[in-house]
């Protein structure tokens, strides 16, 4: 559990899951290829972060559904108003969660598949 919390905190702080000191991003949406501190290669293989994108989109859509469905069920609120109010969030939330979905995916991978060698 202690290791899990450490990896979770590193993901929330957008830090390398291996050393906890190296930053993951050098620009808003651009990741370092390797950790600047421990040289851990972030993208393990081609398409490594596609699952992070899927998780990001699913979480974003659940959040949007969480507030639009109750509003849509209310007959006093017009449907067009719910659609106009919720539609921007289907684009904004995946952008806002982009970095943390990647960092969480990296930490989950390190948790499930711990490194065997420091050069990984
Ligand atoms: Zn590192």
Walk me through this protein's architecture.
The chain has 3 helices and no strands. It is mainly alpha-helical and 120 residues long. It is elongated, with a radius of gyration of 18 Å. It has one domain. The mean pLDDT is 92. Zinc ion (ZN) binds next to loops.
Percent of residues in beta strands = under 5%
Q: Write the element-wise H/E pattern from the N-terminal end onward.
A: HHH
Largest beta-sheet characterization:
none
Given as residue ranges, the uncertain stretches (5+ residues, pLDDT < 50) are none
**End-to-end Cα distance:** 23 Å
Task: Quickly give the structural class.
Answer: mainly alpha
Characterize the overall form: elongated
**Based on DSSP secondary structure assignment, what is the total number of beta strands?**
0
Radius of gyration: 18 Å
Number of helices: 3
Number of domains: 1
Small molecules in complex: zinc ion
- For the residues shown, what is the average pLDDT? 92
- Which percent bin holds the helix content? 55-70%
């Amino acid at each position: 559990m202690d290791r899990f919390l450490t990896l979770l905190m590193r993901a929330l702080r957008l830090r390398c899951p291996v050393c906890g000191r190296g930053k993951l991003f050098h620009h808003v949406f651009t990741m370092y290829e390797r950790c600047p501190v421990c040289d851990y290669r972030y993208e393990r293989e081609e398409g490594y972060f596609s699952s992070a994108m899927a998780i990001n989109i699913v979480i974003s859509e659940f959040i949007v559904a969480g507030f639009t469905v109750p509003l849509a069920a209310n007959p006093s609120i017009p449907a067009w108003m719910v659609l106009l109010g919720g539609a921007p969030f289907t684009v904004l939330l995946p952008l806002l969660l982009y970095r943390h979905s990647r960092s969480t995916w990296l930490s989950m991978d390190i948790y499930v598949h711990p490194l065997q060698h420091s050069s990984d």
